[in-house]
């Protein structure tokens, strides 16, 4: 089917999905959960084809790791479905109902966005996660997975359509795009008449290309150059614990620490101690000139390092003379993702919170907490650093929008 | 200055504007209000140059009318500034603060979007309105007015920069783009690193072009094909009053009625009466076949008429056999702008409200009420039919976004 045709069909289906009862939506998800249990062998054997192809193509080991579906990944997928079933349905909520001077009762009703195109790489579990979140929030989804995961994605997608059919719903509710023909994808990115939102999840190059080609709004984050600022008034022991967690707990994630900023007045007490801890955990430091004076034998940070998202056990370290310099540095080199301050000073904590407009700003806590589950959203469709609609982790509510509703008894415009 | 340079400078300035106190922002607006009073002659004489050019170029009379600044328009601009001064500052509000199981206190803080590019035609008062709304919501604005209003826009912009300077603020807080060089504008539309949002206000062709060229999210509405459905259970007298108001009170606006849908069981009582009223008010009707049987001597509506935004005293009329047909018609031909039902039936009212996801859905009231002032937003930057971020009229709050904030005492990711 042509992109315009797929998009039109799914837009038509979206009117039905928008008004499904929560019970019905949960029933589909329970059925899918069940089908995954019953088809574990099928999923894993289809996944093996992708793994084999990836190995033959000489793909990086870390990519193959992400591609892999084993019993643990199956359980995680099912547990995500359970989470989504357990979350309240955001659709239909009415807020801000109030009477205007002319007696018109005006409010806002939460409704689905409509049709969402999700573009992702590697991890085939996104096929199930994205579908669950879209269905529960009343949206239709077009799923464009990576070509390296095509067998796994088709297998999971078959179970999804079966779960829809078993509950009497149209297969147009969700579409899987398996082609890797660029011109086809580019045409899909222009269907702004039918597709309401694109969420790309993947590397910076993929996302930039989507933004460049699309006429549809895109919510995305390019990268997470996350900072921790260890203030003049920091509790040094606390700073060490937070920085270590932010850097090493899972270094390949977007909310891991990439640049450490240290107030010059605590640098001589904090840095040697911290450097030792990092060294014990295999973290390689790259320091500014002042850092090199205090911590010996580490590499010098170049200008480009301050922009770097290492996604690895590497960390840039800079000594700043005050908070002004820390804030300026973050504004210049940061990616609006996650910043934290370690301080015991009230004014500095509030200033940092107010003046840095990243998607999450923390006081005395790890940057690794920027995550839908950790922040209480219950589930997550990714993190947006786009300063529009949803800024930060996107949960079910962030996959909806509000329309105005008005109850009148003959109100006119005078 | 090159587009990238303008955009970068204004992004830098946006960090300052984001944290201005409400008092300071109001002071700038008071000063601007005052400067407009003192420079009325200057504004009107600059505007006369635009009018003269427009007349010499043979522009449409209605366009020249929109271009014109007289004492009344000056007063309206000042009254809009007063409205914005009187509105609460949305920036800094903290909501949804709650404690996570690990003791982390998580909330959302309202912050400005950042840099907003507003593209508009004709009406030079938008220069002042858009600036006031952006400043009060802590945003920086790039204003791209129509070339036909260039003298008027420059005059108003000079007063804006003077008001900023008098309050000690950088002139980078707001920029006016006066060139009509397309390649320059297209380059501006690609500055997604610095510009966060584009709001185009103008004709469909202008907006389509912006969407096509931009890599920045665009909030817009193409057109307003607004419907009223007169239900089987409508109060006929009320339906007549509402339909008349929606069509004739200001036919050239986006929220004016364009297509009237009538349940077949009330068509014979309602339509002859309504047609007489419309005829008395100079409204030309275009009817479906069934309508032509009841109302004699009117034109037949063609397929293309159902998509039409007449912006004039013309109205399409269709008789439908039930609400299903009305809803299907609106979904197919509508523009997600404004729909109203006239009914005394509870179930039908709720079904219409729930199943039509346009930016405003009304029961027993005029479509002309889709407006920021009428719905209680206090001011308006235009209406969005983009199903993202702000769906419907955009007020001050819709020019902001929320970031997550978290107060911790050593929380880590386990």
How many helical elements of chain A? 14
How many domains make up the coordinates of chain A? 2
Beta content of chain A: 15-25%
Largest sheet of chain A: 7 strands, parallel
Q: CATH architecture of the largest domain in chain A, please?
A: 3-Layer(aba) Sandwich
- In terms of quaternary structure, what is this? homodimer
Give helix % range of chain A: 40-55%
List SSEs of chain A in N-to-C order.
Answer: HHHHHEEEHEHEHEHEHEHEHEEHEHEEEE
Low-confidence stretches of chain A at least 5 residues in length (pLDDT < 50)?
A: none
CATH topology description of the largest domain in chain A: Aldehyde Dehydrogenase, Chain A, domain 1
User: Which strand order spans the largest sheet of chain A, edge to edge or round the barrel?
Assistant: 10-9-11-8-7-12-13
What report would you give on this structure?
Two copies of one chain form a homodimer. Chain A is α/β, with parallel strands linked by helices and 414 residues long. Chain A folds into two domains: 3-219 and 394-407, Aldehyde Dehydrogenase, Chain A, domain 1 (3-Layer(aba) Sandwich); 226-369, Aldehyde Dehydrogenase, Chain A, domain 2 (3-Layer(aba) Sandwich), CATH 3.40.309. Chain A is 42% helix and 21% strand. Chain A is built from 14 helices and 16 strands. In chain A, the strands form four sheets. Chain A has a seven-stranded parallel sheet. The first copy, chain A, has a four-stranded parallel sheet with strand order 5-4-3-6, sandwiched between helices. In chain A, helix 5 runs parallel beside helix 6 (125-136) and helix 6 (125-136) packs parallel to helix 7 (150-166). Chain A is globular and about 70 Å long. In chain A, 51% of the residues are buried. The mean pLDDT of chain A is 97. Strand 13 (360-365) of chain A pairs parallel with strand 16 (400-411) of chain B, so a sheet runs across the interface.
